Amino acid sequence: MSLVSPWSIQCHLKYQSMLFEQTPTSVIIFMMSDIVCNGNIVMKEITLNFKEQLWELKIRGRIVVLEDLDITNTFYCTTSNLHEIFEIVHKIKICTEIDTEHKTKVPIHIIWERIAERGDENTQNFKMRSKTCKQVVGWSYTGDSCHTCINNLNAFKNEETDLIDLNKVDEDDLKKILKQVFPGA
Known about the structure:
Elements: E1 17-22, E2 26-37, E3 40-49, E4 54-59, E5 62-63, H1 79-91, E6 93-94, E7 98-99, E8 105-107, E9 110-117, E10 125-130, E11 136-137, H2 147-156, E12 163-165, H3 171-181
Antiparallel strand pairs: 1-2, 2-3, 2-9, 3-4, 4-5, 6-11, 7-10, 8-12, 9-10
């Protein structure tokens, strides 16, 4: 059982990972996913805190709640434990949203994106994702979307209220957004 430190981490990287930041007590590692979103590869950001022996995962800037996936956020500073973390992160499936036609109207609580697989960027699909997306698909889910996107976007399919036409320039759009964000203002 060999121990790993922030300074020796570079020798242990797997699955197209790269060391992004290194301090005496922690490291940030980027692991490439197979998803391209709006022309950019979606990265899985792993932060290892060696002092606290805790780790976290971020996708698209949002912290993944590891406990929701029945994964502990603690780790031991050993080579085998580090490889287990890389294996888990590699296997975690990123939410690839809900397919949609090219729409010009989207509710303000939904993000519209172009998604492709890495290596096949010329074949892009238009997809919608909830702004509260969990970023990952649970182990027991068989689809490509997290439960939050499924619930929020299925409710949107028949909804025609609170839509903003992105092709129209309208001064009322900002007022509409502000009223929804700050009711009564």
